[in-house]
Amino acid sequence: MAWNLKEDLRDCLVAAAPYGGPIALLKNNFRKEKSLGSRPLLEIYSASGVPLASVLWKSGQVVQLGWTASEDLLCIQEDGTVLIYNLFCEFKRHFSMGNEVLQNHVREAKVFHTEYGTGVAILTGAHRFSLTTNIDDLKLRRMPEVPGLQKLPSCWAVLSQDRVTIILLAVGQDLYLLDNTSCSVVTPPGISAHAGAYVQMAVSFNYRYLALFTDTGSIWMGTSSLKEKLGEFSCDFRAPPRQMVWCTRPRSKQRAVVVAWDRRLLVAGNSKECIQFVLDEDSYLVPELDGVRIFSCTTHEFLHEIPEASEEIFKIASMAPGALLLEAQREYEKQSQKADEYLREIKDQNLLAEAVRQCIEAAGYEHEPETQKSLLRAASFGKCFLDKFPSESFVWTCRDLRVLNAIRDYQIGIPLTFAQYKQLTIEVLLDRLVLRRLYPLAIKICEYLRLSEFQGVSRILAHWACYKVQQKDKSDEEVAHAINQKLGDTPGISYSEIAARAYDCGRTELAIKLLEYEPRSGEQVPLLLKMKKSQLALNKAIESGDTDLVYTVVLHLKNELNRGTFFMTLQKQPVALSLYRQFCKHQELETLKDLYNQDDDHQELGNFHVHSSYSSEKRIEGRVGALQNAVDEYYKAKNEFAAKATEDQIKLLRMQRRLQDELDKPYVDYSLHDTVYSLILDGNHKRAEQLYRDFRIPDKRFWWLKISALAEREDWEEMEKFSKSKKSPIGYLPFVEICMKHHNRHEAKKYAARVTPEQRVKAHILVRELDQAADAAIEHKNENEMNLVLSKCTAATDSLVVEKINRAKAQTLKK
C-alpha cells in the first residue's frame, strides 16, 4: 500500500467500494474534543493506497461511511443527514432520512446495493428501522416495530428477496424478520439447540446466502431465505468477530465464510476443517463478487477460491492436459525432445483442445503478468497442432488481460479480477477511469479495443472537456482553443453540454466561446437564453432558419423585456418581427395593433380594423365604428380603392340593418350580390333596384341576378315584363338557359325566338327544336353548327333532320 497511515484502521471509520474501488477513511471521528487540530479528516485513497483527496470534516458526527454503485461516497451523520461526495472529496448534494431519525439520532447504519440502486438503512435510538432502496429516487420506508425491543439488536443485516428489501435482526437467541408490513420470528433450519445468542451476521455479495455467528463459536451457513442449511461450523473463538463476510465465486459449489478478529482470520466452509491465518496488523475485509479483499496499513491482498482450471494446471504432479501442455511449451523453449513426448501424450488422449482451453481460462484468473504470458504461450503453442480451434477466446483473453494489467498498476489502483471485469463491463470501467480523471488511459483502452467513437473516445473527450472548463488557471480563450483543438469535429461530441458545464462553473464568456463550435443551433439557443444572452440567441435562431427556434427566443424576450424595449429589439430583426406578427395574428390581436401603430403602418392597421370588425364586434354600431377606423387608416395610407370599398361596406351594413328591421328577415352579413338576390326572391323589386342604383351594380350582373332569382321564384310573368323593359345587356340566350334549367320549355321558346341569329342554333337545341336548329344552321351555311345539330340527333326519332342536314352539307360540297 502506498499510503503512510499513522493511525490504526480500528481508530478510523473505513469504507471500501467493491470491484477494486477506492477506500475512504475518516480519522479522529471518535474523539470528543472539538478543537481545530482534532477535527476529523476525511481521506480517499485508491485501492493501492495512492491518495486521491482529503478534506477536514466540518459537519456533524458521522456514524457510517459507504460507497454507491457509481463510486460516490455517502457520509451518514448522527442526525440522519446523508452527505454525498465524489472521489475527490467534492461535495455533490445531501438528503435527510426523515424527522423521526433527526429526533432519535442514528445509532447504526448500513449502505447496501440492490437492483433498484444504492440504498441506506438506519437504526435509530428508538430501536426503529428506516430505509430507502434508492438514494437517487428517495422514498423513505419506516419498518414495523419489533415487539418488546428495549435495547439495540446484537446484529442486523439487510436482505433482498424477490425484489423486496427486508431487515433481519438478532436479539439474543431470537431472530426477527422485518418486511414492509409485519415483524415475524424466524428460526434458521438445522441450527444447533445449544448454538447460543447471535452476535454477528453476514450476507453474501449477491444476497443469496446468510451466515450467523453465535457467542458459543458456532457459524451457521444457509440461504438468505432461511429455508435451507448449507453447513455449520464450530470454532474455538467465542468473542464477537470484528468482521464476517462471505467468500464465494460465481457458478462455484464451494462456499466459505471469512471471519476476522483483531489479529486472526478464519475461513470456514462446508467441511469440518477450517483455514486460519495470523494477521500481522489490523486488517479490513471487503467482500467481492468472487472473493474477499483484505487490506491493512501495509498490504492489500485478495483471498479467493482457486479456479478449477488453475488448480488442474498448477497442483503438484498434475497430469491434467493443461499442465502437460504448459510443460510441453517450456520444454520446447529449451529445445528439448520432451516437448514432443508431452504433446503426444495429450494428443493420444484427444485432449489437446481441452488443454488449450484450460490454459486460456487459467491465464484470465492470474494476476502476475509473467504467469499470464506463460499460460498464453502454452495455449498458442497447443493451437498450432489443432486444425479447427476457434481463436476468439484466445484473442479476447489477451485483450482483456492487457486492459486488466494496465488498470492494476499501483498508480491506477483498480485491482479488478477477470470475473469482476466481465461483470462490470468495459463501459462501466471506462466510466470509472473517467471519474478518476484518467483520460489518457481511458482513450488508449478505447483505441486498443477498437470501440466506436460514440461509445468510447468521444464520450471520454467530452468528460475531459467538462473537467477542463473547471480549471481556473487559464484564460477563457486558451481553454476554448485547447478544447476545440482536442475535440475538433469528433462525432458524438456536444459542445453545448461542455458550454453548460462552463456556465455552471461561472464562466459565461467561456461558455459563449464554446457555443461558437456547436453546429446545431437548437443546442446553442436554449443555453444562450439560460445565460441571459437573448440578443445573441435571437441572431443564432434567425441564422438557423428554424422558425420554431425563432418563436422560442421571441416569446422568451417578450417575457423578459418590457414592452417598449421588446418592440425596439424586434425592429432591428425583420425576420423575427415578421414571425411575431404572424403569431400575434392568431394569438394576440391587440399586440399586433400596437406593432402596426409603432410602425405607422396605416395599410395594415386598416386591414386589422376590417378583420376585427367581423371577428370581435357583434353589434352593428361597433362593426361600423371599426370599419370607419379602417377607412381613416386607408386614407392615411393613400389607398383610395380600399377606403371606397370599406365605405361601401359601411353603407351596405346600414342598409341591411334597415332592411332587416323593416322586413323582419336577416340581411346583415350578406354580400351585396346575396342581398339583391334575396330581395328579388322575396318580390321586393323596388328595393333591389335601389341597391342596384346606389351601389352601381353593373347592368350585366344585375340582369343575371334578377332573371336567376325570378326563375327560382317561378315568376315567369315578371321575367317576361323585365325582358321587355329595355334591351337586354346580356342577350336572350341566358333567359333560355335559365328557363330550361328550371324545366320550363314553354317559357324558353318565347326567348329562343328573340335571340340573335348567331345564337339561334344553340337556343333551338336548348329547347329541343332540332328541326328549326337545322334550318338555322343550313341558313348560316355553317358546317360546325350543322355538326353540332347532328350530334344531338338520334336515328330513331330525328331521321328527317339528319337527312336534311346531310343533303345541305352535300350541296355545300358541290359548290
Automatic annotation (TrEMBL):
Its membrane topology: Peripheral membrane protein
Ranges in a coiled coil: 325-352
Entries under Pfam families matching the protein: Vps16_C, Vps16_N
Gene3D superfamilies: Vps16, C-terminal region
Protein keywords: Coiled coil, Endosome, Lysosome, Membrane, Protein transport, Transport
Subcellular location: Late endosome membrane; Lysosome membrane
GO biological process: endosomal transport; intracellular protein transport; vacuole fusion, non-autophagic
GO molecular function: actin binding
Gene Ontology annotations for the cellular component aspect, listed alphabetically: CORVET complex; HOPS complex; late endosome membrane; lysosomal membrane
Domain Vps16 N-terminal: 1-395
Vps16 C-terminal domain location: 493-811
Presence of keyword NAD: no
Role noted for this protein: Plays a role in vesicle-mediated protein trafficking to lysosomal compartments including the endocytic membrane transport and autophagic pathways. Believed to act as a core component of the putative HOPS and CORVET endosomal tethering complexes.
Complexes and interactors: Core component of at least two putative endosomal tethering complexes, the homotypic fusion and vacuole protein sorting (HOPS) complex and the class C core vacuole/endosome tethering (CORVET) complex. Their common core is composed of the class C Vps proteins VPS11, VPS16, VPS18 and VPS33A, which in HOPS further associates with VPS39 and VPS41 and in CORVET with VPS8 and TGFBRAP1. Interacts with RAB5C. Interacts with STX17, MON1B. Associates with adapter protein complex 3 (AP-3) and clathrin:AP-3 complexes.
Family: Belongs to the VPS16 family.
Protein name per UniProt: Vacuolar protein sorting-associated protein 16 homolog
Species assigned in the record: Gopherus agassizii (Agassiz's desert tortoise)
